[in-house]
Write a structure and sequence with these properties.
This protein is mostly helical. It folds into two domains: 250 residues, MetI-like (MetI-like fold), CATH 1.10.3720.10; 35 residues, no CATH class. The chain contains 13 helices and two strands, in the order H-H-H-E-E-H-H-H-H-H-H-H-H-H-H. The relative contact order is 0.14.
Length: 306
């Protein structure tokens, strides 16, 4: 009898978490998975590869080796043996090394500025949605006013007034990218705040802030993750635009945006300066957008009914 019960217990299907179900659905989306691994590879290459000695300092100049083509081996007048995988720029600097180090800056800006916008948007939207009433109306009208302002001009004014500080660039971009996140979180919180688990938390005497941070915000993780993957490329594009205008990363440091700016200035004489960083930058943005679309489909509650 006991063995029969044990055998029947083994036949019972094991439960599966929502996260595991979403991961299984994501794995079926080959474009999203390819984008995920490509993005992981880009991050690993940009942050790990420069640690090896065969990747030169991106700011070392060799004036006698200007505008060398790809796959060039040469010896500088100082006696240094160099190999240019993607060629050299107008100052004899290694383009491949500058793309790697520029990728570090662009990715760092994307991650950190997104973290700033994520923090502001999630807290602001959760408080607005849960509080409701006049407070919610005032908070959302403030968001509407900010939506009407030209954000690019605001960021340009801030970076011009306070100087081209990289940390200020993170804060400025993050501070203008949180508006949509706040609306998404507010909508999710409004749909959740009258459900049973929130009513139970209120009946236990939990404070408003504890309900928001312990019960409501964790239940908005799905849409937040999806929008985060779409915010990172948006932030990277904004940084590239600022760098293209000369208001972002300053020489001799580089980002993908500043490298594209340098390449655009010398496109006629040396197209590789523009083509190589533009291809890497474009593929990275595409991978993040495809990954965001895949996560949206995987985390869609309607998909779990299939």
């Amino acid at each position: 009898m006991i063995s029969e019960i044990h055998r029947h217990g083994q036949d019972i299907e094991k439960g599966s978490s929502l996260g595991r179900d979403a991961w299984l659905r994501l794995k079926k989306n080959y474009l999203a998975m390819a984008s995920l691994w490509f993005f992981v590879a880009i991050v690993a290459v940009c942050y790990v590869l420069p640690l090896f000695p065969f990747v030169p300092d991106p700011n070392i100049t060799h004036p006698d080796l200007q505008s060398q083509p790809a796959f060039t081996s040469a010896t500088s007048m100082e006696g240094h043996d160099v190999f240019y995988l993607l060629g050299s720029d107008h100052l004899g600097r290694d383009i491949f090394a500058r793309i790697l180090y520029g990728g570090r800056v662009s990715l760092f800006v994307g991650f950190l500025a997104t973290a700033v916008s994520l923090t502001i948007g999630v807290i602001y939207g959760a408080v607005s949605g849960y509080t409701g009433g006049r407070v919610d109306a005032v908070m959302m009208r403030f968001v509407d006013i900010l939506y009407a302002l030209p954000f690019m001009i605001i960021v340009i004014i801030l970076t011009t007034y306070f100087g081209n500080n990289l940390w200020l660039l993170f804060v400025c971009i993050g501070a203008v990218e949180w508006l949509t996140m706040s609306r998404i979180v507010r909508g999710q919180v409004i749909s959740l705040k009258n459900q049973e688990f929130v009513e139970a938390a209120r009946s236990l005497g939990l404070s408003r802030w504890r309900i928001i941070f312990r019960h409501l915000i964790p239940n908005t993780v799905g849409p937040v993750i999806v929008y985060t993957t779409l915010t990172v490329p948006a932030v990277m594009r904004l940084e590239a635009i600022l760098s293209f205008l000369g208001l972002g990363v300053q020489p001799p440091n580089a980002s993908w945006g500043s490298l594209i700016k340098e390449g655009a200035d010398r496109m006629a004489s040396d197209p590789g300066l523009l083509v190589y960083p533009a291809i890497v930058f474009g593929l990275t943005l595409f991978s993040l957008n495809f990954l965001g679309d895949g996560l949206r489909d995987a985390l869609d509650p309607k998909s779990s009914k299939d």
